Request: fold
Amino acid sequence: MSVVSRQDAADAATGARDAGGGDALRLSDIHMTFRSRGRRRREVVAVDGVSVSVGRGEIVGLVGESGSGKSTLGRVMAGLQVPDSGTVTIDGTAYQGRRGITPGFHGAVQMVFQSPAASLNPKMTIRSILGYAARRAGVPRDGVGSAVSAALEEVGVTPPDRFLGRFPHELSGGQQQRVALARALLHRPAYLVADEPTSALDVSVRVQIIKLIREIQAHHRMGILFITHDLSVVRALAQRALVMYRGDIVEEGDIDDVFARPQHEYTRRLLGSTPQLVPPQDAA
Ligand SMILES: Nc1ncnc2c1ncn2[C@@H]1O[C@H](COP(=O)(O)OP(=O)(O)OP(=O)(O)O)[C@@H](O)[C@H]1O
Reply:
């Protein structure tokens, strides 16, 4: 991707919604098709012309069945996947193509994943994992130690000294996910894409991580795209919901409206089949 403008032409062209006022992370008319090589060439349209936005200070829940394109959309939003076409606009700066995925893009948008164990290098200590992230985020060498400790404090991995020398496998799943969040926070991102960050965790730990994400979001006025299969988590956390089905956003609205008056048949089916694992009051 390369920076092509500092105006909102892409948004005007596609009508992407800016729910958070001026500052927003917007995707405009994103297309992504995966093509397999070999004799039996197959094409999978993962994202089929999607325009969405996440405002600063807003949590948007993205739900949909397996294979509907949620993770692909999230990776595009975080600059980890270059789409076939479409524009990513971060606070008014539009990015297109491979060369636009710059350190500035990654600094502005960070991502956390379902499996913290897989996203943390097993051969590195927590000190090295976070120290490396701090250096990449531009923290001067003599400030790395205190930045790492502050990040661990912020995510509740305390006292930091007790954890710095450990390897990821010496932490619980919840602690690993907290470290993954600390790594993201070291970049002071304006936006976070959280791809099923709680689904690999026990239910009680899940609630704690949801609370932590909400605290972090409020403290930094961050915009978050929260991807999940679990509608009850979206209800507990998000102000707005996007429902994805076969590569397209089929429903978008304020959380209460989507739950009370689902418009799309797929959303109605999804609501009908979702147990309430995290009632809103428990996650508050
Ligand atoms: N790197 C890839 N190569 C080929 N096909 C891919 C690739 N990544 C995703 N796909 C395909 O694109 C479609 C959308 O995948 P994606 O992972 O975005 O969906 P999802 O909604 O996140 O699913 P899940 O909830 O199971 O993670 C699927 O059919 C998937 O198999």
The first strand starts at residue 2 and ends at 5. The pocket of adenosine-5'-triphosphate is lined by residues 34, 44, 46, 64, 66-72 (CB under 6 Å). The chain has a mean pLDDT of 87. The chain has 13 helices and eleven strands.
